[in-house]
Amino acid sequence: MIQIKKIIGSGLYTGFFPKVPGTFASLIALFFYLIPGFENPYFLISAIIISTLVGIPIGNHFEKTYGKDPQIFTLDEFIGTWISLLFIPKVYYFIIPTFIIWRILDILKPYPANISENLNGGIGIILDDIISGMYSLIIMHIFITIFF
Question: Nearest CA to 136 among 98, 92, 107, 88?
Answer without folding.
Answer: 98
